[in-house]
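Technical annex, item 7. During the second reporting period the consortium partners agreed on a shared format for inverse folding records so that results from different sites could be compared directly. Each record opens with the tokenized structure and is followed by the designed sequence. A conforming record, contributed by the partner at site C, is shown below for reference.
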């Protein structure tokens, strides 16, 4: 079975909720592990080396938060070879701007993933502490479909 890891960083729990929902839906087809980066070390992930890595981050001042970037930098130094595939998801309170989606570049620069899904998930929160704005559920459904297609390629 395909081994999928979802890692994320969260401050108010928003990214955790999204990561868990994505993980729950993917667990019907794949072996899924979900961890906040404070619960694991980059070494753990490098040793297990999943088939697919999904990275979740909250957007802070137009960029993924610095803790997830630091974790990914450390992970990249530990991997002997890149993970086959990766995808990204974000939580944010600002009006979405494509320049926020910097995780693919970070994954490439750190040699973490060979192939990165061009589709990503961006969930807009009503306030910093949530909840998600109404109408975000369909975005998760579409993301699951796109990631599943990406995995099966």
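Designed sequence (site C submission):
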């Amino acid at each position: 079975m395909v081994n999928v890891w979802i890692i994320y960083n969260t401050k108010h729990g928003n990214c955790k909720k999204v990561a868990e929902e994505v993980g729950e839906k993917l667990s019907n087809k794949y072996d899924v592990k979900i961890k906040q980066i404070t619960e694991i070390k980059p070494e753990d992930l490098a040793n297990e080396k999943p088939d697919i890595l999904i990275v979740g981050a909250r957007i802070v001042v137009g960029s993924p938060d610095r803790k997830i970037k630091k974790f990914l930098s450390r992970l990249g130094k530990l991997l002997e070879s890149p993970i086959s595939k990766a995808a990204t998801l974000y939580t944010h309170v600002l009006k979405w701007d494509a320049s926020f989606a910097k995780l693919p570049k970070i994954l490439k620069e750190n040699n973490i993933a060979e192939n990165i899904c061009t589709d990503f998930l961006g969930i807009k929160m009503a306030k910093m502490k949530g909840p998600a704005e109404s109408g975000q559920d369909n975005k998760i459904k579409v993301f699951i479909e796109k990631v599943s297609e990406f995995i099966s390629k």
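Residues 63 and 84 are 25 Å apart (CA to CA). The chain has a mean pLDDT of 96. All partners now use this format for quarterly exchanges.
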